[in-house]
Write a structure and sequence with these properties.
By secondary structure, this protein is of the alpha/beta class. The protein has seven helices and twelve strands. The strands form two sheets. Strands 6-7-8-9-10-11-12 form a seven-stranded mixed β-sheet.
């Protein structure tokens, strides 16, 4: 096997290379900052170039990194009302002092301007619902509706400087509405959790299918490769990849199949300009 080590997915975005928006706060936030020089402090004590964070859900791998940003470090936290309410239920997130961390909400399917600790960041965003599920820690409360509501799992289109891209780290299936949003997009980061729906069952790691976990598979008739085949997306990158996924092996047949359909596998340190 030939595979590279990866941290859990977050994405940093900037219009000027100085002030950064973080899409989801990975549990590996501290390590990711240490490996990324443009995110290092440059001015006063406790300065951070990360001026805003936008959450696409409330799963642990999307919010745990916020606790590494609690040191009187000013930034704006963007999320749906639903996600803000879930964070407010857990007193540990009150460590994000409201004197430094402003909470901002957004409505779905309505463009809004991203502002950070020092005002506008010259970035626009449009968030939209995608099929998914409630966070794992809430499954007991929502056993009758694990799919959750429209604000539980979202994708987001970010635009600025003449370019735009979509970030969808979790998605249970392709819908017609999502298909229309993504058609002819310049760049899409998309959920690459599992190669096959029964991957974890076959490996005797879990009794859950990918669909049960709120993720569509890459392969198969209803999978990601097939769903994107005629969308005209110019660059397609898989993120949120489970350690069981054979595409992580650069010599695997699954990786070759993926490449033959124009897909890339996300990795730490990728830098993309639009």
């Amino acid at each position: 096997m030939r595979a590279r080590a990866r941290t859990q997915v977050s994405l940093a975005v900037s219009a000027d290379g100085e002030r950064w928006l973080l899409l989801n706060a990975s549990p590996d936030f501290r390590q990711q900052v240490a490996q990324t020089q443009c995110l290092w402090p440059k001015a006063a004590p406790r300065h951070s170039p990360v001026e805003a964070v936008l959450l696409t859900g409330a799963e642990i791998d999307q919010v745990a990194g916020l606790l590494s940003m609690r040191e009187s470090q000013p930034f704006t936290l963007w999320a749906t009302e639903r996600v803000h309410s879930l964070l407010a239920e857990n007193p540990i997130f009150s460590a994000l002092n409201p004197a430094y961390v402003g909470r901002r909400s957004f409505a779905l399917s309505t463009p809004f301007e991203i502002t950070g600790a020092n005002g506008t960041m010259n970035l626009m965003a449009t968030a939209y619902a995608v099929p998914g599920k409630v966070p794992l820690f809430l499954e007991g409360r929502h056993a009758e509706n694990l799919a959750g509501g429209p604000e539980d799992t979202i994708g987001v289109e970010i635009s600025g400087g003449g370019g735009s891209f979509h970030y969808i780290p979790g998605c249970a299936r392709m819908t017609q509405a999502l298909r229309q949003r993504l058609r002819d997009a310049a760049l899409v980061f998309f959920d690459g959790t599992l190669w096959s729906d029964d991957e974890l069952i076959k490996l005797e790691i879990s009794s859950k299918t990918g669909q049960r976990m709120g993720h569509m598979s890459i392969s198969g008739e209803g999978g990601t490769i097939a769903a994107f085949a005629n969308l005209g997306v110019r660059r397609k990158i898989l993120v949120h990849i489970n350690t069981t996924n054979p595409i992580l092996d650069e010599d695997s047949k699954e990786r070759r199949i993926l490449a033959s359909h124009g897909w890339e596998v996300g990795e730490d340190g990728m830098r993309i300009s639009l």
